[in-house]
Amino acid sequence: MSVPRAGGRRSWQTITVAQQTEWVKGAAPALAPPKTQRSYRTVPVPRPVILALAEHLDGRSADPDSFLFPAPGGDPMVPMSREQFYKVAWKPAVKAAKMPAGTRLHDLRHTYASVLIAAGKGPKTVATRLGDTVGVTMATYAHLFPEEDEDTRAVVGAFLARALNVPSETDTTDSPQVRGA
């Protein structure tokens, strides 16, 4: 993750995902490329996250390649182990946010996707933000997208009414009579 800086201060509105920390049991954490080509992405960051990150990073190394969660010992270029992260950063954050015990980091990904969908963002936008394909996103989150049967019927009906120069479904002044009724 790249955190751009301006004028010696940390300043950003997006986070660029260009590498990831790879944790292999029994080995030191290492930088690795993202899992897929789609995983390389730039994600817009809302102001509350910017403020929380700024507070977290206050007084830390100004090196743009330093880790958000460096290993204990002071070297900002060495990442925390997964175990250290969960003990030192994640579990206290879950407690402070009054989230249920057992909340996983991956649960934030699902929350992020759910919030985007609830706000009316389409599958392509959600997939892009998550670094997934639309197919994977729909397989995981299709149940959260609103049903649009009535809306799609109305849209196509309005199009056909204009094309055929006939009253639309919302025009009730000249409703046709059904024969045999």
TrEMBL record:
Q: Does the keyword Transit peptide apply?
A: no
One Pfam family cited in the UniProt record for this chain? Phage_integrase
Matches recorded under InterPro entries: DNA_brk_join_enz, Integrase-like_cat_sf, Integrase_catalytic
Q: Which SUPFAM superfamilies match?
A: DNA breaking-rejoining enzymes
Specify the Tyr recombinase domain's residue ranges: 1-154
Gene3D superfamilies in the record, alphabetically?
Answer: Intergrase catalytic core (1.10.443.10)
Which PROSITE patterns does UniProt cross-reference here? Answer: TYR_RECOMBINASE (PS51898)
Q: Which domain of life is it from?
A: Bacteria
Q: Which UniProt keywords apply?
A: DNA recombination
The protein's name: Tyrosine-type recombinase/integrase
